[in-house]
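Worked Example 4.2. Consider the chain below.
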Amino acid sequence: MASSGSFNTSGYSGRYLKFSWQTTNKDVANNRTTIKWTLKGAGGGSYDWYMSGNFKVKINGNQVYYSSTRIQLYNGTTVATGTYTINHNADGTAKFSASAEAGIYTVAVNCSGSGSWTLDTIPRASQPSINSYPNNSPNFNIGDKIVIHMNRASTVFTHSVYIRIGSEDRLIASGVADNYTFDTSTIADELYALIPNANVYSNVVTVQTYNGSTLIGSKTCAYNAHVVNANPTFNNAYLDSNAATVAITGNNQKIVRNQSTLRVNVTDAVALKSATLASASVTVLGRTVSASISGSTATLNVGTLDTSQDVTASVTVTDSRGNSTTKDLNITVLNWELPTAIITLQRHNNFYNDTDINVDANYSSVDNKNTIDIKVRQRKEDETTWSGWTALQDNVTSVLTLDNDEAWIVQVVLTDKFGSTTYNLTLSRGMPIVYFDRKRSSTGFNMFPKYDKSVEIDGRLFVNNEDIVSKFTGIGGIARLAPTDDWNTACETLSGIYMGSNMQNAPENSANWFYVFHMAHNDLYQRQVAYDFFGIDMWTRRKDNGTWSEWYRVDLTTGTYTASEVKTGGTFIDGSPIYKKTIGPIDISTASDHSMAHNISNLDKFVKVEGIAISSAGAWPLPFVITNDLNQAENIRLNATSANVWVNTRVARSGCKAYVTVYYTKSS
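Applying the procedure from the previous section yields the following structure tokens:
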């Protein structure tokens, strides 16, 4: 598009005509442009001037100038000038063309030229915008007053403004010059009804542009009408729907921990601005329960609450647009836990039939509505028949009569209004602290003597604050269970035989059971030998000046040769366990390559090999080399990718059999 332009005609001896133009007036109202045009002499030449004539200028095919008069045409001579008005298309666009000709030096026309241009578009129909101009700001809240700007191209233009609702273009103003303020509350209910399930309604505003009574055109701009202040309203309340707990508390607004059944009721729910109610939910203690809404109510059955203190529930109602309202609901909780007790059961003097029992019960108050009942029964340890129940008082000592020649199971049951707890206690036979058995001529400490002429103790014997029995830990009886979970500290300076599993600093960090023979010189110098409870493996280590060495596996397979696979207990440099196996007999009586399958599964690599050749005449190791005659050498050949072991003999060895022992690691 252009507001000026030019072209040159063909020439004679360097002299030609130049046509140029420029816009002088843009008549927006009447949709036309006026240009001023000029035709001049231009270009150099052999002479200052040339006689020229028969000048003609056409614009859009219309002749606007003609002269047959011949003149002296210099460079810069103005031949003609004028104005021309060009009507634009209905959309404001326009193109025009021009041509010029003349006879330079000759009478006949010998120079001509032409050009065409697109004029600047004249704005026609106004482009509306909302709340800002010239750019559109389409978003507003339903109920707002919005300003619709015309953005007109001419002050003579007027406009009719329409807003589209559904498929209807509704006239809201006419004769508008620059802008119009529209109150969207007047169409709010209609917009809400169009979007019961959405929060935004989108459509267009249309502006028709007039010049007087002539319709120039129409244009639109988009609008997005937003729903606001439309969250649903409701009331809520809670209650304990468990009739049994309500009968105890006397108040359905008090929720007993793990006993009451919490129910939340939503009432008087209302969806706003043409939405419908969708759902209700309640969240309490991280648990959410949802329900649909029937009419204006919803029932949310939460169930029991496991908390000792009051809680706040969040109740939410959501409508069809996804808008929601959440309210806090404070819930009163009464703590309840199963009753517990500290129970004392003790024979008189640890010996007699009369046995004191005291049950100190601890139970939840539940708003002072709870009570406790305690009862006891008993049976002999080796029988199944119980006595009848006897009631006990809380924290009151009662006396049971239980034969001191028998051990007894005593069962105590604590029952409050919500639940019960059962305790099973064992009462041993009556046992005096010191018992003199005249028949056996023996004395028992905390036991009856079992042997003649003996002193027997059920417990630990200390001399000068030292447990002297522990000095012989594991000797003469079963191994002692390690008193700590670390073999570095479990035995301290107490020599003996111990056992334990899942121990720290165990051989190979294994969680297996081990027997450990511990020998202590003092706290700084000690030795341990460990045996695998489930196998034959053995490890040893020592403590020097307070520091334990690593465990060393003892190879118990040395000197053992078998055709079966044996785990040596050793490891290769990469930490892999080493296995060994003997393959044979391999007949090597002829001079040839001899092989036998080794049948090793999951073979990784060979790490060592040794062999022997045996005949009735004697035996010699393999490989075998006679230094002065290499032709009589025997060798062993192995390959981890081969299923065979090979023995190569250079000479016949009548009646000779080879046995090859291989050491190897496995991939799994």
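The longest strand covers residues 214-226. The two ends are 83 Å apart (CA to CA). Compare this with Example 4.1 before moving on.
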